[in-house]
Automatic annotation (TrEMBL):
The lineage of its organism: Bacteria, Bacillati, Bacillota, Bacilli, Lactobacillales. One of its GO terms (cellular component) is membrane. The chain crosses the membrane at residues 20-41, 53-71, 83-103, 115-135, 156-182. Keywords: Ion channel, Ion transport, Membrane, Potassium, Potassium channel, Potassium transport, Transmembrane, Transmembrane helix, Transport. InterPro entries: TMEM175-like. GO terms for molecular function: potassium channel activity; proton channel activity. It is found in: Membrane. It is a multi-pass membrane protein. This is DUF1211 domain-containing protein. It catalyses: K(+)(in) = K(+)(out). Pfam families: TMEM175. Belongs to the TMEM175 family. It comes from the Bacteria.
């Protein structure tokens, strides 16, 4: 039996993936907004804002994470000139995982804050590590070497641990603000700074 060769795609497939990524991320952002609950009126005088507030914080975190991925992927597709069929397949898996963000914002409603924080942090870390490793493999495939900040993994681990610990003691409100740090840091590193070629 003849061994099959892994496909290698160039400009057209890269442009197609970039366009598909734009569409997927736009839909994700739209769905996350639709998941924010409208405040309920209590006793005809006051609004119950706690549920809406928690959903808004999770929306902000999720939106900033998705936006950070968007800018990272825009730079990624601009740098590469070829991609293998295996890389395309793994990238589609990344998009599938990313598409779960609206589901995560919906799961927050009525969930125990500590359990939700643990699941949410693990989800963000797994998706982030997955796409980071995939990008490194595609860069190697293209002969591109980038200087990376070696401290960001420890920073991510420290803030994720702090968010989980805070969720035990102060609930989702305290941990939510710590969770905001992660995507803001990622967004700043994606948009403000550039990885330099070695």
């Amino acid at each position: 039996m003849k061994k099959r060769k892994i496909a290698c795609y160039e400009k057209h497939m890269i442009e197609t993936l970039k366009t598909f990524t734009d569409a997927i991320m736009s839909i994700i952002a739209t769905l996350m907004v639709l998941e924010i609950p409208v405040p309920h009126l209590l006793n005809g005088q006051h609004y119950a804002l706690q549920e809406t507030f928690n959903a808004l914080v999770i929306f902000f975190v999720s939106f900033l994470v998705v936006l950070s991925y968007y800018f990272d992927m825009t730079k990624f597709f601009h740098r590469i000139h070829k991609i293998s069929g295996l890389h395309v397949f793994l990238y589609v898996i990344f998009l599938m995982l990313l598409s779960l963000f609206p589901f995560m914002t919906q799961v927050n409603i009525g969930t125990h804050p500590t359990l939700f924080t643990i699941v949410y942090v693990i989800y963000i870390v797994v998706v982030s590590r997955f796409i980071s490793m995939l990008c490194q493999k595609v860069y190697q495939f293209n002969g591109i070497t980038l200087k990376r900040n070696r401290h960001s993994a420890w920073d991510l681990l420290l803030m994720a641990t702090l968010a989980i610990v805070l969720s035990f003691f102060v609930g989702s409100n305290g941990s939510s603000f710590v969770l905001l740090y992660l995507p803001i840091r990622s967004l700043i590193s994606s948009v403000v700074f550039d990885d330099e070629n070695e």
